Amino acid sequence: MWRNIARSAAASCLRRSRRFSTAIPGPCIVHKRGADILHDPWFNKDTGFPLTERDRLGLRGLLPPRVISFEHQYARFMESYRSLEKNTLGQPDSVVSLAKWRILNRLHDRNETLYYRVLIDNIKDFAPIIYTPTVGLVCQNYSGLFRRPRGMYFSAKDKGEMMSMIYNWPAHQVDMIVITDGSRILGLGDLGVQGIGIPIGKLDMYVAAAGINPQRILPIMLDVGTNNQRLLEDRLYLGLRQPRLEGEEYLSVVDELMEAIFTRWPKAIVQFEDFQMKWAFETLQRYRKKFCMFNDDIQGTAGVALAGLLGTVRAQGRPLTDFVNQKIVVVGAGSAGIGVLNMAAQAVSRVAGNTGASPNHQFYLLDKDGLITKERKNIDPAAAPFAKGPGEIEGLREGASLLEVVKKVKPHVLLGLSGVGGVFNEEVLKAMRESDSTKPAIFAMSNPTMNAECTAADAFKHAGENIVFASGSPFANVDLGNGKVGHVNQANNMYLFPGIGLGTLLAGAHFISDGMLQAAAECLASYMSDEETQNGILYPSIDSIRHITAEVGAAVLRAAVAEELAEGHGDVGPRELEHMSKEETVEYIIRNMWFPIYSPLVHEK
Ligand SMILES: NC(=O)C1=CN([C@@H]2O[C@H](COP(=O)(O)OP(=O)(O)OC[C@H]3O[C@@H](n4cnc5c(N)ncnc54)[C@H](O)[C@@H]3O)[C@@H](O)[C@H]2O)C=CC1
Ligand SMILES: CC(=O)C(=O)O
Ligand SMILES: [Mg+2]
């Protein structure tokens, strides 16, 4: 049943699109001239404007005379990046990472085509800068780093104005929006307006992985205040200096923004990102049938984790039906942890069929107060289905510590989404040596790196060399000596959200169904070969992120078609989508991915 999905046709199609400017790009209409173009990163080519274009666009004399090719500009940027790496050798990690972020950000501000080209071609090196972990550091220092705005900012003070404000955005068409209220940025807590770095980083991944046109993306910060006292007292803080809105007041502001977005762009897709748990669940429930939206922390993460959990069953050389026997301890009962458990429970029901057995007996859920049981006072309704009943686990009480749980349960999988760095300490990891699995799995999924439940090196050192390891932020593979290497997987929702967005967009679906999300997870789960999973490789390398995104996008699109949710996109109607084979759907997706090359600019008044 596990197969490598037709990777080759799609891969060669992607390779073709990687060539430097041999294809003749279509023209791009621009409504400005002269210096205004040079100052617009969407259109700017810096020294790359050919002489004829300089004449046509009133640029003659505004640039040095020599025309530099795209390849040459690319090489020049990479050279300065590499010399920055050399010059910062030995400096603290945070200084180096921020310096790298700055040089990339300056390019982003100046010339988007070149920026996205270097990002796509060097995604393994640059994802840790524009995405986790460095994006966390950028958010923490945002007010100090701020030079110019990116995206849109709506605040509690804009109530009643949002419908008109949305028209201030210069692009006529927007496909993909990522929105945050900054209340739970990675594992760093409430960062208020500074959380805008997250939508920006996620949308950079949309361009790099899914080929969404950067002129059609929109990062949004909804600033409803912050409860972070340090920020409220920081004189450089750029957000509203007031406590967060709560209750109906909060919801009415989000309602207004959603109405404004979908009034102007009825076909846009909105991704909610890094909302604190109560609002993450509440807004998902409130909007998911009304608007085309999803919550990445709940739904994207769940799919990636499920793919990893199924991968660990395969890694043990067991049939997938064995998933129902895997004992899984989830540490962190927040939006991500509960999202994972809900999706895993659905998968168990599918695998087990209607046996009448309690579907959740194999799951153990802990939060900051330890093991969650039915005795828990004021239990969160979202956690309740996973709370252990009295007597269900002999010798384990309400609030039992993680170490007690691991020792008693001997889980196959230990999965962290707690946001707490180091919570999988030496004792806990050593206890995993007694796991009932031949290949115990440790998922330290919290971000950024400092907040990972354990490091890769500690996991292999303390839990043993036979483990399968995954982390939310990247770690280098671990040298186990004797020529052996402990493989480090990156279990991050970046493997799914770009495909969910792109597949939904090209399907022209009005909402994102459970079936579409399940198709995305199954696609990722089946992407790796048996041999790869048995070597502990559960996810593809980030180098192939465009390819996996094309596959995931196709799976999502086909699920939308099967559920009759697809209304088509552009010239391609639902009937044509219906008649596409799986391979044709992948090719259709790839053909629709934007790729950064300089297009001839044509001026139109
Ligand atoms: N790798 C990935 O793709 C993703 C990773 N994450 C990461 O997961 C973390 C949590 O995110 P959310 O669930 O949205 O946060 P959340 O704030 O909703 O939940 C955090 C949960 O962890 C629990 N917790 C806190 N301290 C604990 C401790 N010492 N032991 C056990 N549990 C503890 C809390 O009680 C709460 O239930 C963040 O660090 C985030 O970056 C989130 C989404 C995707
Ligand atoms: C990856 C992600 O979405 C998070 O850490 O919140
Ligand atoms: Mg997130």
Automatic annotation (TrEMBL):
One of its GO terms (molecular function) is NAD binding. The keyword Protease does not apply. Residues 108-288 form the Malic enzyme N-terminal domain. The keyword Electron transport does not apply. Its cofactor is Mn(2+); Mg(2+). One of its GO terms (cellular component) is mitochondrion. InterPro entries: Aminoacid_DH-like_N_sf (IPR046346), Malic_enzyme_CS (IPR015884), Malic_N_dom (IPR012301), Malic_N_dom_sf (IPR037062), Malic_NAD-bd (IPR012302), Malic_OxRdtase (IPR001891), NAD(P)-bd_dom_sf (IPR036291). (S)-malate binds at residues 184, 447, 492. It is found in: Mitochondrion. A divalent metal cation binds at residues 273-274, 297. Keywords: Metal-binding, Mitochondrion, NAD, Oxidoreductase, Transit peptide. It holds the Pfam family Malic_M. CDD domains: NAD_bind_1_malic_enz. One of its GO terms (biological process) is malate metabolic process. Divalent metal cations. Prefers magnesium or manganese. It catalyses: (S)-malate + NAD(+) = pyruvate + CO2 + NADH. Involved in the regulation of sugars and amino acids metabolisms during the night period. This is Malic enzyme. It comes from Vitis rotundifolia (Muscadine grape). The lineage of its organism: Eukaryota, Viridiplantae, Streptophyta, Embryophyta, Tracheophyta.
